[in-house]
Amino acid sequence: MASDEEQKLGVMASCKKMVFKAMERIKKVGRDDPRRIIHSLKVGLALTLVSLLYYWRPLYDGFGIAAIWAVLTVVVIFEFTVGATLSKGLNRGLGTLLAGALGVGAQHFASLFGQTGEPIVLGIFVFLLAAASTFSRFFPRIKARYDYGVLIFILTFSLVSVSGYRVEKILELAHQRLSTILIGGATCIFISLFICPVWAGETLHNAIASNIEKLANYLEGFGGEYFQYDDEENVVEDSKNNKSSLDQAYKTVLTSKATEDSLANFASWEPKHGKFSFRHPWKQYLKIGSLTRQCAYQIESLNGYVNRADIQVAMQFRRRIEESCKAISSESSKALSILASSIKTMTNLSSSSGKTHVENAKIAIDELKDTLKSEYVENSDLLGIIPDATVCCILIEIVKSVEKTSEAIDELGQLASFKSTEATVSPEKAPQSQLLHRGIVNPVPDHGERGDHVVVVMVNDDEMEKGKAQALEVRPSKGEMV
């Protein structure tokens, strides 16, 4: 008896544990993106509204059993984003309207051939239109934008044609189905547009900026992670934890192509919203996304050389290239951060400070190349320097990818008319990268043995507190500088 009670308690405990796990998963899904909860409520509202065609007797008397098509339409076309809902809704409406009209016309034309010829003619029409419509789905442009509409066209034309052969009131049947489908589609579009809309264009815009930030975060910590030595035991454990989180972040960029393609397609259906016009250059986002993935694949190769215990390296060579490699990864990270901010704020930040960091990275590349061409490398163990030399080559390719991404974002800024901040930003609010070269010039009179001249004191902001200054002696009479 006791064993049975223990079994019951064990089963109840396991069921309780499973319920708690399910609740935690539900909370996590809702916490990750609260828009999912709102979307679920919107779908429930749309289904409730179109179900009135069944529940309310006057509406049911007008539409009859065809009201089920409104419910099916809501289930099929209501998507997460406005663009996806508009795409499916318009495709379904146009496909149904065109196929219904052709189906009624085909049925009327076939009836002219009598009872013997009518099914033959209808069969020919169904064969020709179904074959032609199916073949059109292989064209890339139609496949991307109108595939669902073509599918609905085939389905509706076949249903109307086949039903028309057995149903006398074919016009009434087509009218009821078309009306209920339009009601269901209009309900979905209205709710999707005016109740907490989720825009595909805005989602794509933020996703591209977020992907660039993930690459910047990885490169920011790469230098300190890669150039670690056995005597730095105090930071090894923390850096491993940071590395695992960075891996998870940048690896999501590698598989972002399908999502970006679908978002760009749906965004092209959306009306003007926020800062995005109807003809916003969404294809340029796909170009930027492709360059971002290219950089992510290079980072994936780079990541393979981090903390590799099975690789023997020449530590003296690694110390020689450490400064240049850290500068390359740091400057590339800063450039990517500025590019991401440029997209987020829709301003032309990349045209100034972003290119400055790219140029700094190129200077570090030149220094790195000089190191690789030195006599020390020629006299070193080839197998010992190959891993580090490979890392150097990958870093050089990453800088090239960053530069191409910067050019693509500049092109996006021109096409989308990004705001320019260069003429409106005051020196006090200038970005940190612009403050590095700003100084204070103070003319100081000096009455020494050399006669009348001026000492110009230049002080950087970063060095002001340290009391450092650089004095340039200028003689007005000869225009000389000492």
UniProtKB/TrEMBL annotation:
Compartmental location: Membrane
Keywords: Ion channel, Ion transport, Membrane, Transmembrane, Transmembrane helix, Transport
GO cellular component, one term: membrane
Domain of life of the native organism: Eukaryota
Main localization (coarse): membrane
InterPro entries, per the entry: ALMT
GO biological process: malate transport; monoatomic ion transmembrane transport
UniProt membrane topology term: Multi-pass membrane protein
Pfam families in the cross-refs: ALMT
Parts of the chain that traverse the membrane: 37-56, 62-82, 94-114, 120-139, 146-166, 178-200
Similarity field: Belongs to the aromatic acid exporter (TC 2.A.85) family.
Protein name listed in UniProt: Aluminum-activated malate transporter 8-like
Gene name in the database record: LOC111005591
